Amino acid sequence: MLNFKAFVVGLLFGLGLIVSGMTDPAKVIGFLDLSGAWDPTLMFVMGGAVLIGSGGFAFAKKRQLSLLGAPMRLPTATDLNKRLLAGSLAFGIGWGIAGFCPGPALVSAAAGQPKALIFVAAMLTGMALYNLLERREK
């Protein structure tokens, strides 16, 4: 039952990405194009997500279990380090070049968009490489 509930929540998230237009890389790249035909719609989508997320985190901090019954595991780290900054930079560059971040890329890949399929393959390769390097360090 937990997997079904998680699937429904993920489906709702994916539908929200589709309705907001965030699965269209041209929308994302249009937001980043400050000197051309700037498209501010991503700013409103992000603002709405921050407002809803802030309320959700305030609610979650008071709970021991998630609404789906899993233990709450909220992030506790607050320090900035080289790895976090390098990862953020790589994420931002990839997002700016491709016009996708992971959520919309998965939705678009599921819809069969070739550019999204390439992005997701590269993303999964990067994740596997990270895991391999992490294991070698330990």
Instruction: Report the order of strands and helices.
Output: HHHHHH
Compute the CA-based radius of gyration.
17 Å
The number of E-state strands comes to: 0
Total helices: the number is 6
Total domain count: 1
Distance between the termini: 36 Å
What does this structure look like?
With about 140 residues, the protein is mainly α. It has one domain. The protein has 6 helices and no strands. α2 crosses α4 (about 80-100) and α5 packs across α6 (about 115-135). It is globular, with a radius of gyration of 17 Å. The protein starts with a helix and ends with a helix.
Write the layout of secondary structure elements.
Blueprint (H helix, E strand, L loop, with lengths): L1 H19 L4 H8 L8 H20 L21 H17 L3 H9 L3 H24 L1
Overview in brief:
This protein is mainly α and 138 residues long. It has helices spanning 2-20, 25-32, 41-60, 82-98, 102-110, 114-137.
Descriptors:
138 residues; 6 helices; mainly alpha
